[in-house]
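Weekly modeling sync, notes
Attendees: S.R. (lead), two postdocs, one rotation student

Agenda item 3: backlog of single-chain predictions. S.R. asked that every request posted to the team notebook include the full sequence so nobody has to chase files. The rotation student volunteered to paste the first one in as an example of the format we agreed on. Action items at the bottom.

Example entry:
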Amino acid sequence: MHRLATSTAAIILMALSSQISAHEFDSGNAYGGVGLTFNTAGGLNATGFQLFGGYDLNVKINDDISTAVEVGYMDSGSFGGFGGSADGLWTALVASTEINRKMDAFMRVGLDFGDDDGVLVGAGMGYHFTPKAELRVEYVIRDNINGMQFNAVFHL
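Predicted structure, as returned to the notebook:
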């Protein structure tokens, strides 16, 4: 099952890569973020962080679902005892839809290339304080670590 899910996510990301590479870069579509993560693994809890960057694609699904790609680094924090910690790079495709002028809902699917390598999926909501500043609350599931994330996002 793990290999099938990883292969499926890889195929989706590769299929979108042609759209991404054909897309003319616009710095106004770029954004970065930093977040605090509250993680669980094997009954243990840890508080970690992440840094990420993203790019809004000019690809809409059904004319109302926006798409973006993100790449980031996550450190789970220490689970203590024999739990250790996990860190590494990840990448994801994000699909979002506007709820109202200030809020949107989104989901993601991607791959983790770190200690918890494999598929990741998540869903959450974002609140736009300004057109350039957003706060996201999200729950992400990885192969071994699940986490609630609070991310500050800054659009260029």
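Discussion: group reviewed the output briefly. The CA atoms of residues 90 and 97 lie 23 Å apart.
Action items: rotation student to repeat for the remaining queue; S.R. to check formatting next week.
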